[in-house]
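Sample 3 of the quickstart, ligand zinc ion:
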Amino acid sequence: MTTTVPAYAAPAAKAPLGPATIERRDVRELDVRIAITFVGICHSDVHQAREGWGTALFPMVPGHEITGIVTETGPGVTAYRPGDRVGVGCMVESCRVCENCRAGLEQYCAEGPVWTYNAVGRDGQRTYGGYAQEIVVDEHFVVRIPDALPLETAAPLLCAGITTYSPLRHWNAGPGRRVAVVGLGGLGHVAVRIGHALGAEVTVLSRSLRKKDDGLRLGAVDYRATADPETFEELAGRFDLVLNTVSAPLDFAAHLGLLRTDGALVSVGLPEQPVLLDLRALNGGRRSLSTSSIGGIAETQEMLDFCAAHGVAAEVELIGVDRINEAYDRVVAGDVRFRFVIDTATL
Ligand code: NAP
Ligand code: ZN
Ligand code: ZN
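Result:
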């Protein structure tokens, strides 16, 4: 049995999103049914709905920055009850037994995690994301939203928050460490806040100085324009960690030059084109280049608790579903401060 649920879907690649209905499964033994209240628009939604990352599954209901209220639980669910404030991020299943799953790294599951949308579940059914009235998810992939965090500004933490918190922690952002955040968008603005809350000295590297006041208010101590070649001369060899959140191709060699010995450039931004890199950019100073994919479920809960304790949440522009297509164009144009969040009451 299934329940028919109102949603907003892309019917085909590059086609505008519009009203649709989807089927959600009945709750199984360990499932939680969630009435979705808010869902963020991540740049990854745009990459996938427009097939920028390659062939995708349509119709597609994007959305992996989901907050809402539990309405029903399966008989075996122990962690949640109806009325609980919860969130769902980018994954809804994994094998749960491989080395990575057992280490709390479900995002690197050996069999591949099942993404919240644009994927096929382990039962063979298509997954549909959070631009919808409700979702049914195994309790392991549900996290609790602390009472101190409003559901609308917490929603972006489910992707933008964990995607930046995880590498900041892994590469030891903290007191005495200098971190550069490249790109002040959805991920970038949360990265500045989290990096600052962790005690690191944060610099923003943005294309221009247009958002400088915002960057400093969010916790950065310095703000530079990457369009200005002097930035790369003045900041050469300065940072322990450069966290790239830019959605477009970057001059990686130039940004590697900003690292101290043993520094790391970590790109969470996933441009649609391959990167060509002269390895000599890594060679001076034993620098490393890595990517990082979201974060595990336990770490996502840790991030939410950290954000609640430090007053960290996203700055959002709340919209109704009728403005999703306009919002997509504005995300691509870099015209949002700093995350669109859909009020699903408008569905
Ligand atoms: P976003 O809100 O659009 O922010 C990206 C920022 O990159 C923009 O605000 C802009 O910053 C800069 N930018 C955008 N277009 C640019 C261009 N053509 N040239 C130079 N800079 C440009 O996007 P987001 O939601 O934060 O996502 C950022 C990237 O991370 C996307 O590629 C997304 O798919 C990826 N992502 C990865 C993961 C993961 O697990 N690894 C998770 C979530 C998202 P300035 O205006 O300040 O320059
Ligand atoms: Zn995302
Ligand atoms: Zn696994």
